Amino acid sequence: MDLAQAHSRSHFSLVREAPGQQAPVDFCIPCNPYFPTPEIFDTLGGNLEAILKYYPSDSETIAAELSATLGLNPRTVVMGNGSTELITWIDHLLVRESLAIPIPTFGRWTDQPLETGKRVDMYPLLESRNFTLDVDDYVRFIRSRGSRVAVICNPNNPDGGYLPRHEVVRLLDRLIDLDLVIVDESFGDFVDAEPYPGLAGEAAVRPNVIVLRSLGKNFGLHGIRFGYLIANPALAGRIRGALPKWNLNSFAEVVVFMLKEHLADYRDSLRRLAQDRHIMLQQLGAMPGLTVFASQGNFLLVKLPDGHDGVQLRDHLLERHNVHVRECGNKLGTTSQFLRLVVRPSPDVRRLLLGMTHYLYAGTPLETPVIGLHHRRVALASGGPA
């Protein structure tokens, strides 16, 4: 199987290529493994005929329900068919000449404006500084380039780097004269570094700020394609007016109207995921030569030891261990030596670690000790004997 040119291949394409085989354990697509609950899936399954048969309500009706659930002013909220649709319309409507973005980052923030002829000013986040964003240096870069729009992803994708809330507010204050500042909080619900880190309240009252959030990423429902943004009423209204009236599907409507009764389950899923992230960080960090970057997302960025290529490891994991990972060679600002690994429960992580160990250390004195270390750490994580 030649995967050398693959991007993030879909779950469905992988299943089609191996009919009758069990679906791969997915460390590639950043889903929440604990949400939705089986109860939610049962409800969706029980309503499948109606969901597929009937038109949804218009997007404003669905957005009003989401706003009520999240405690937001509906005049400041716009829902889209995934965050990518919102990024597309932000670019068409609000980006006139140039956009600054730290890299590496989510690819649509560089690709979309380039596709429409804009200048993209790429600010390199340095591996030597753990891909940390320096607010003052980023502002200097924006001024030197004359960028009119600035973007940050917080937490950032693919490294999970997080800028504290007060630092983001300071950035917004420094860039009050720009046409637009966008804070992409698509993975914001996974942050546990500080309470209530989001900037929805700031976006609702500032003249030039948009906050973007992804329901698919947070809720583990990428296939439904729903996201939303928050901006002041005038800015939100301009974007809302450009969107199709029925840009959301019936699955999105049913899920949004179910959220109120499942918020406690959702919050519990975030706590469990944060615990898994901590354990997975420790396990990966114990592998000799592997660099693991601290993350506030639901994924971890790792750099392979020198002399190892992520494409070959990705193919090995899929073909030999039925594990699917994201190799980052086509992300601006990283190389194929980097992998982004989604946080998953410990039994799945053990399978990943064993596959990585067999590839990285096979035939070396490290192989057996590293495998033993995985066994001990998994036992400790589950409360068993070391």
Question: What layout of secondary structure does this protein have?
Answer:
Elements: H1 11-17, E1 25-27, H2 38-46, H3 48-53, H4 59-70, E2 77-80, H5 83-94, E3 98-103, H6 108-115, E4 119-124, H7 135-145, E5 149-153, H8 165-174, E6 180-184, H9 200-205, E7 209-214, H10 215-219, E8 227-230, H11 233-242, H12 250-258, H13 263-285, E9 291-293, E10 299-303, H14 310-321, E11 323-327, E12 338-342, H15 346-361, H16 367-381
Parallel strand pairs: 1-11, 3-4, 3-5, 5-6, 6-7
Antiparallel strand pairs: 2-8, 7-8, 9-10, 10-12, 11-12
Keywords: Aminotransferase, Transferase
Organism: Nonomuraea soli
Protein name: Histidinol-phosphate/aromatic aminotransferase/cobyric acid decarboxylase-like protein
Molecular structure report:
This protein is of the alpha/beta class. The protein has two domains: 11-36 and 264-381, Aspartate Aminotransferase, domain 1 (Alpha-Beta Complex); 38-260, Type I PLP-dependent aspartate aminotransferase-like (Major domain) (Aspartate Aminotransferase, domain 2). The chain contains 16 helices and twelve strands. It has helices at residues 11-17, 38-46, 48-53, 59-70, 83-94, 108-115, 135-145, 165-174, 200-205, 215-219, 233-242, 250-258, 263-285, 310-321, 346-361, 367-381; strands at 25-27, 77-80, 98-103, 119-124, 149-153, 180-184, 209-214, 227-230, 291-293, 299-303, 323-327, 338-342. The strands form two sheets. The chain has a seven-stranded mixed β-sheet with strand order 2-8-7-6-5-3-4, sandwiched between helices. A five-stranded mixed β-sheet has the order 1-11-12-10-9. β6, α9 (200-205) and β7 (209-214) form a beta-alpha-beta unit. α14 crosses α15 (346-361) and α15 runs antiparallel to α16 (367-381). It is globular, with a radius of gyration of 21 Å. The model is unreliable at 1-6 and 378-386 (pLDDT under 50). It comes from Nonomuraea soli. InterPro entries: Aminotransferase_I/II_large, PyrdxlP-dep_Trfase, PyrdxlP-dep_Trfase_major, PyrdxlP-dep_Trfase_small. One of its GO terms (molecular function) is transaminase activity.
